[in-house]
Design brief:
Layout lengths: L1 H17 L39 H12 L2 H4 L13 E2 L9 E2 L16 H10 L14 H4 L4 H13 L19 H9 L13 H11 L5 H4 L18 E7 L2 E6 L15 H10 L1 E2 L2 E2 L4 H8 L5 H12 L14 H14 L1 H4 L25 H9 L26 H11 L12 H7 L1
Antiparallel strand pairs: 1-2, 3-4, 5-6
The structure holds heme C (HEC) (3 copies).
The site of one heme C (HEC) has 26 residues, from helix 9, helix 10 and helix 11.
């Protein structure tokens, strides 16, 4: 008994130490990048006094672009709240730790970062230390932002100074996130401070892509599995992490991010152009935008220049295959049952070949979602459908939503179907059980 108490106390302290994982509660539709409405001005401008064209400081414009690349707005805007005013809640896989909230980064002097100097801001981004010296939790991805060059951070600082100041204090954090001192140990164990160092053996384009993916883009925050203390595991980088996020309005469940390496169960089947198209537009012949990637693409990646999106794709295409999913063998009976479910519910759009069809659906054969080590996102797509977020770039040929099948199949049927998908057409992926499906309901 005593042993148990010690164990759980230890687990609590360790988990508090490790603290946090990014993402969650974000509202898919929340996009502060809605096209400016072309409404007529309320008062006609006198003909003799044309308003001067607004001059945008190039440093501010650069900062705005980079703030988008870092997707600051998705995390620093609560549901229905003002952009950058914070208050969005984040959960970790350890629910007993409670929630942590993003801060107000508008220039309000009392509740935001209005009194922060440029040096304070740079220190926070590079080292995870706030202006008052307190240690920030890595739900704020300073572990990635540390790579960002000082000039780029100066531009972001200049831009944040120009956003509307909002007087708003985010809610208090869960008890575990009121203690900040454990972060000293966490940082000592897991945080490597330092700017991005170009690889001289690679092209300039590859280095630009690596700088964006590793730094501001913080892709590894979701796409890398974490250890028990919630630090990213460098030995399996980009092979696909898991995190709590929204599955449907007001409902949070686990998602699994895809393996971004060239593994067969990852992006092995995607060309560099497929990757670039998906990042820039949320659509490519391989996949359409849904789930947590809605926010990433709608609020951030679609605003990048085609050159930057291409550079990122060049870097991602170069990630060596790692973390291949395990295989399984179905009995003839299991295969027949799974195939029958596929014919009834899925074939109409995804085709008997599994290759999908133009204007109908993306392929499930070779899909990184179907084959992911952790099946959460595959199960979510079946239970909740695959929904294209509001504000998606929606290029020509993009698919519409896939419907939800939660009411049409039992947990056992969805598990059978998932196992069929994970073994047919040369796909790989370990077994999915009815209990796995039940957890996602
Ligand atoms: C994945 C979510 C996420 C993203 C993306 C993100 N932040 Fe944050 N940020 C947070 C959270 C959560 C906190 C609060 C951390 C804490 O309280 O320890 C935070 C804290 C901060 C702080 C400290 C503020 C204070 O008052 O202590 C600054 C500055 C900041 N973020 C700036 C940015 C900028 C600039 C960007 C974009 C380049 C950005 N953040 C992107 C989640 C995020
Ligand atoms: C907030 C967490 C999060 C972040 C940040 C994130 N991803 Fe993802 N990503 C996911 C999840 C979860 C999935 C699987 C479900 C989905 O598509 O939303 C995914 C899927 C993908 C896929 C496969 C899509 C498919 O349907 O096969 C690609 C490619 C991808 N992400 C690239 C990136 C890149 C590049 C970045 C960095 C710029 C990035 N992601 C940042 C969570 C994230
Ligand atoms: C009415 C047409 C339709 C039906 C029926 C349908 N889907 Fe889909 N599916 C789609 C569309 C469209 C998308 C892409 C949606 C988007 O871009 O957000 C999709 C996406 C997916 C994805 C994500 C693929 C990836 O790699 O990003 C999976 C997995 C999936 N469907 C599985 C299934 C399964 C399993 C069934 C049967 C239970 C099914 N679908 C039934 C239309 C359909």
């Amino acid at each position: 008994m005593k042993y148990r108490i010690t164990r759980s106390t230890l687990a609590f302290t360790l988990a508090a130490l490790g603290a946090v994982m990014a993402v969650s509660f974000a509202d898919f539709a929340q996009s502060q990048d809605a096209p400016a409405a072309d409404v007529a001005p309320a008062e006609a401008t006198p003909a003799d006094a044309p308003p001067p064209a607004p001059t945008v400081d190039p440093l501010v414009a650069k900062g705005e672009y980079l703030a988008r690349a870092g997707n600051c707005v998705s995390c620093h805007t609560r549901h229905g709240g003002e952009p950058f005013a914070g208050g969005l809640a984040f959960q970790t896989p350890y629910s007993f730790l409670g929630e942590i909230h993003s801060t107000n980064i508008t220039p309000d002097p009392e509740t935001g970062i209005g009194t922060w100097t440029e040096a304070d801001f740079i220190r926070a981004m590079h080292t995870g230390v706030a202006a008052d010296g307190s240690k920030l939790f890595p739900a704020f991805p300073y572990t990635a932002f540390t790579l960002v060059g000082e000039d780029d951070l100066k531009a972001i600082y200049a831009y944040l100074k120009t956003v509307a100041p909002v007087k708003y204090t985010p809610p208090g954090n869960g008890i575990a996130f009121m203690m900040r001192w454990p972060m000293t140990f966490w940082n000592a164990l897991f945080f490597k401070e330092g700017r991005y160092q170009p690889d001289t053996k690679q092209t300039e384009e590859w280095n630009r892509g690596a700088y964006l993916v590793e730094g501001l883009g913080h892709c590894s925050a979701c796409h890398t599995p974490r250890n028990l203390l919630l630090a990213e595991r460098q030995d399996v980088k980009y092979t696909g992490g898991t995190q709590p996020d929204v599955v449907a309005e007001g409902k949070v469940r686990t998602w699994s991010a895809a393996n971004l390496t060239q593994a067969k169960s990852g992006l092995g089947g995607w060309s560099q152009d497929n990757i670039a198209k998906y990042l820039k537009s949320g659509h490519s012949p391989k996949a359409g935008i849904f789930g947590p990637m809605n926010e990433v693409i709608i609020n951030s990646l679609q605003h990048l220049t085609p050159e930057d999106a291409k550079a990122m794709s060049v870097y991602i295409k170069s990630l060596p295959a790692m973390g291949e999913s395990p295989t399984q063998t179905l009995t003839a009976e299991q295969k027949t049952a799974g195939e029958a479910l596929y014919k009834t519910h899925c074939e109409e759009c995804h085709n008997s070949s599994g290759r999908g069809a133009f204007l109908k659906a993306p392929p499930v054969a070779g899909s990184a979602i179907v084959q992911a080590t952790h099946p959460a996102s595959l199960i979510n797509s079946i239970l909740y459908g695959a929904k294209v977020g509001v504000g998606s770039p929606n290029p020509f040929g993009a698919w519409e939503d896939m419907p939800s099948f939660a009411g049409k199949m039992t947990d056992d049927e969805i598990a059978k179907l998932a196992n069929f998908l994970r073994t047919n057409w040369d796909n790989v992926g370990g077994p999915v059980t009815a209990a796995d499906v039940a957890k996602q309901r």
